[in-house]
TrEMBL record:
Keywords: Cell cycle, Cell division, Cell shape, Cell wall biogenesis/degradation, Cytoplasm, Peptidoglycan synthesis, Pyruvate, Transferase
EC number(s) on file: 2.5.1.7
Gene Ontology annotations for the cellular component aspect, listed alphabetically: cytoplasm
Gene Ontology terms describing biological process: cell division; cell wall organization; peptidoglycan biosynthetic process; regulation of cell shape; UDP-N-acetylgalactosamine biosynthetic process
Protein name as it appears in the record: UDP-N-acetylglucosamine 1-carboxyvinyltransferase
Functional summary from the UniProt entry: Cell wall formation. Adds enolpyruvyl to UDP-N-acetylglucosamine.
Catalysis performed (reactions): phosphoenolpyruvate + UDP-N-acetyl-alpha-D-glucosamine = UDP-N-acetyl-3-O-(1-carboxyvinyl)-alpha-D-glucosamine + phosphate
Residues bearing the modification 2-(S-cysteinyl)pyruvic acid O-phosphothioketal: 126
Lineage, highest ranks first: Bacteria, Pseudomonadati, Pseudomonadota, Alphaproteobacteria, Hyphomicrobiales
Gene3D superfamilies: Enolpyruvate transferase domain
Length: 429
């Protein structure tokens, strides 16, 4: 298993190109199941999760051509995928795949809508909470599917097809909204999804589905109205920039000081994060190219933050913010409201000298003057990168083990940071 070694203390200066969003690319790729025509996706990041999803879709009989030319500024823009699900040869998504990536559970809706049946293993993904699938099942049942759970699999059947209905989610779920939306676009009649997730990645999926011929209103709001159509067709769509990667690098620059242009980043997807960074004393400005992030001299001020569904502060940036606040002048409080077990980074940050106490869903972070390098272990995707942020300002050497978590969601992290002056390298096992 690879590790990453960082020698802390260097300021970051230069440019980082922001990749396409993992959490948009995955549902967009899955949407390819909904048509026998070709869906072309541009700006797809090269990530372990994308590679795994290609294998999963391949297992259903989907043909995926990759145009691997690294086009765009400095040859960095993402891959282009041509996804063709001419015929679905297998409607089962096996444990071996789905247990490794949460998003693969989202094949349920499209398979059911297109084939009238699906057998999908209960999902895995980052171990950040119990992460049930009741809301996904509620949505499928509201659309007329019969659901049975057997041997760790969700078996869903709708032999006469799905029928539109009102789906009211008791809680906001990104994944259940993706699943409901992809099922509803091919269901007979009208569907209304109430309390839908408003995350930009849901809107990105909906916009792609519209290009494929779906009829969806209310995109970007909490109520989605869908008029089912009998078939979808080919389309070309560009994956939106990764707001979590953007926020992560913004926090890395905030940590070390310096000035970095995040090329291709969209500040409008990160209002809550830009506000928090501003309160901490970090300047973030939209430019023609993306976002310019700088902290020159000013001390980091502590903040009080609670994670919330979009447009609130994202849970996927909670660990990174906590790493940053370990060096603030004063005491911060960070409350995690989305996942009950998303504090696995705390004990690893403490190894680096952070002072953090936990009380239920709230972490109290007392800023310290010095962090000291140590060996630490990545426990999940965003936790891993929070350790990298801390390592960038820790005295001496930090070695992060189990970076396969990181490779799920950050494309060439060590190159992007290294090009801006970080002393960082991958140690191959
Ligand atoms: C691949 C991807 O895009 N993953 C993102 C997605 O995960 P994911 O789609 O899994 O997260 P959800 O939005 O569904 O989860 C939100 C909350 O709802 C709960 N819940 C969810 C489904 C369900 O059937 N029942 C239920 O109770 C979850 O346990 C959690 O407490 O959104 C999360 C919240 O922004 C992000 O942290 C993840 O990075
Ligand atoms: C939690 C994440 O991913 P997943 O939902 O795939 O576990 C994430 O992207 O931070």
């Amino acid at each position: 298993m690879d590790s990453i070694r960082i020698r802390g203390g260097n300021r970051l200066n230069g440019e980082i190109h922001i990749s396409g969003a993992k959490n948009a690319a995955l549902p967009l790729m899955i949407a390819g199941l909904l048509t026998d025509d070709t869906l072309t996706l541009r700006n797809v990041p090269r990530l372990a999760d994308v590679a795994l999803l290609m294998r999963i879709l391949g297992n259903h009989g989907v043909d995926i051509g990759v145009d691997g030319k690294r086009m765009g500024v400095n040859g960095i823009a993402g891959d282009t995928l041509h996804i063709t699900a001419r015929t679905i040869v297998d409607t089962t998504a096996p444990y071996d795949f789905v247990s490794r990536m949460r998003a693969s559970f989202w094949v349920l809706g499209p398979l059911l809508a297109r084939c009238g049946e699906a057998k999908v293993s209960m999902p895995g993904g980052c171990a950040i909470g119990t992460r049930p699938v009741d809301l996904h099942l509620l949505a499928m049942e509201r659309l007329g599917a019969e659901i049975e759970i057997d041997g760790g699999y969700v078996i869903a059947r709708a032999p006469k097809g799905l029928t539109g209905n009102r789906i009211t989610f008791p809680k906001v779920s990104v994944g259940a909204t993706h699943n409901a939306l992809m099922a509803a676009v091919l269901a007979r009649g009208e569907t209304e999804i109430e309390n839908a997730a408003q995350e930009p990645e849901v809107a990105d999926l909906a916009e792609c589905l519209v290009k494929m011929g779906a009829r969806i209103e209310g995109i970007g709001t909490s109520t989605l109205n869908i008029s089912g159509v009998p078939r979808l067709h080919s389309a070309t769509h560009e994956v939106l920039p990764d707001r979590i990667e953007t926020g992560t690098y913004a926090m890395a620059v905030a940590m070390t000081g310096g000035e970095v242009d995040l090329i291709g980043a969209r500040g409008d997807l990160l209002d809550a994060v830009v506000d928090v960074l501003g309160a901490a004393g970090v300047a973030v400005k939209q430019t023609n190219q993306g976002l310019k992030v700088s902290r020159n001299g000013a001390a980091l001020a502590p903040v009080e933050v609670e994670t919330q569904p979009y447009p609130g502060f994202p849970t996927d940036l909670q660990a990174q913010l906590m790493a940053l606040m370990t060096r603030a002048e004063g005491t911060s409080t960070i409350t995690e409201t989305i996942f009950e077990n998303r504090f696995m980074h705390v004990q690893e940050l403490v190894r680096l000298g952070a002072e953090i106490s936990l009380n239920g869903d709230t972490a109290t972070v007392h800023g310290v003057e010095t962090l000291r390098g140590a060996e630490v272990m990545a426990t999940d995707l965003r936790a891993s990168v929070s350790l990298a942020i801390a390592g960038l300002m820790a005295e001496g050497e930090t070695v992060i083990h189990r970076v396969y978590h990181l490779d799920r969601g950050f494309e060439r992290l060590e190159k992007k940071l290294g090009d801006c002056g970080a002393d960082i390298e991958r140690l191959s096992a």
